[in-house]
Design goal:
The chain is α+β, with helices and mostly antiparallel strands.
C-alpha cells in the first residue's frame, strides 16, 4: 500500500539517543503511514516508548494510530500496530477531510488579516497572531473530559480541533498538535512542548502541552489551551512569550529547558 501521509523527521526525532532509535522511528513511521498491521523491529521497551512518542508528536497527521495499544513482542521483535479507525479506506477519507478543513482554516486566517485592513502578507508574526485568534473563537477546552471513565480519543489529537461538528473540542495536547499541523502549512517552525502547569483555578499542578513557534529567528511560547475562555482584555496573555515571561505567569510552569529551544533568544 502506498503511504497515506508523508511522515516527518521532526524535533522529537532529533532528540533520539542513537542511530538505532532513529532507524526504528523510520521503520514504524513508514509502516503507520501505509496502515500496516505489524512491523519488525529490534529494541528495548524503553526505547520503543521514546520512539513512539517522538513519531506521534512530530506527525499530527497520523492521528489514526493508537501507539498506547500497539503490542510489542520482545522475543520475536514484532510490533503489532493498533489503529483508531476501522480501515485504511476510512482513514483516507478522514485525511482528505482534514486537509480540506486545514485549507478552510488557512482561508479564515487570511480573512482575519483582511478585516484588520492589513496588507495580506506572509509575515510569520501576523500569521501566528491570526491563527491564535481563530482557534480561540473556534474551539472549546475539553479538559473536563479527562475526569470521565471513558473519553473521546479525539480530544488528544487534531481531529478534536478540526473535524468536530460546530466548535472543536480538545485537551491541551490535541490543541498543541493542531497548532503544529497548521503551522506546517504556514511554513512556521513549531515545537510541541510538554511540561507542568497550574492553570486557572486548578488547585494542583497538572501535565500540560503548548507550543514554541519560531518568528524572525526567535522562538516564543504560545499556549492556546490556557487562553480559552479568558476575557478579551486577557486573551493575549499566552501569546508569544519568552522563557522569563512564561515563568512570571505564576502558574508553577515547568518544562525541560535543556531540551527545548530557548524562547526570546535570537538563533545564530
Amino acid at each position: 500500500m502506498d503511504a497515506m501521509v508523508q511522515t516527518k523527521l521532526g524535533f522529537y526525532y532529533e532528540q533520539l539517543d542513537d542511530i538505532d532509535e532513529e532507524y526504528i522511528y523510520k521503520k514504524i513511521a513508514g509502516a503507520v503511514s501505509r496502515y500496516e498491521s505489524e512491523v519488525q523491529i529490534d529494541c528495548e521497551p524503553h526505547q520503543l516508548r521514546r520512539v513512539m512518542k517522538a513519531i506521534k508528536f512530530d506527525n499530527p497527521e497520523i492521528f489514526y494510530w493508537f501507539p498506547e495499544k500497539s503490542d510489542y513482542n520482545e522475543e520475536n521483535g514484532v510490533l503489532k500496530l493498533s489503529y483508531m479507525t476501522a480501515s485504511a479506506e476510512e482513514t483516507r477519507e478522514l485525511l482528505e477531510k482534514l486537509k480540506a478543513k486545514k485549507k478552510e482554516v488557512l482561508a479564515e486566517i487570511r480573512k482575519i488579516k483582511e478585516t484588520k485592513k492589513n496588507e495580506v502578507t506572509e509575515d510569520a508574526l501576523d500569521e501566528i497572531h491570526n491563527l491564535y485568534e481563530y482557534l480561540l473563537k473556534n474551539i472549546e477546552n475539553a479538559e473536563e473530559e479527562l475526569e470521565k471513565p471513558e473519553c473521546a480519543r479525539s480530544i488528544y489529537d487534531v481531529t478534536g480541533v478540526l473535524l468536530q461538528e460546530g466548535k472543536g473540542r480538545a485537551a491541551c495536547l490535541g490543541i498543541a498538535l493542531a497548532v503544529n499541523y497548521i503551522c506546517s502549512s504556514l511554513h512556521i517552525p513549531s515545537v510541541l512542548v510538554t511540561g507542568k502547569a497550574k492553570i486557572d483555578d486548578c488547585d494542583y499542578v497538572e501535565s500540560w502541552a503548548w507550543n514554541l513557534v519560531k518568528v524572525d529567528g526567535e522562538y516564543y511560547h504560545v499556549d492556546v489551551a490556557a487562553a480559552l475562555g479568558l476575557p478579551k482584555d486577557k486573551k493575549y496573555k499566552y501569546l508569544l512569550l519568552d522563557d522569563e515571561e512564561m515563568k512570571e505567569l505564576g502558574e508553577e510552569r515547568k518544562w525541560s529547558e535543556e531540551i527545548y529551544p530557548k524562547a526570546g533568544i535570537k538563533e545564530e
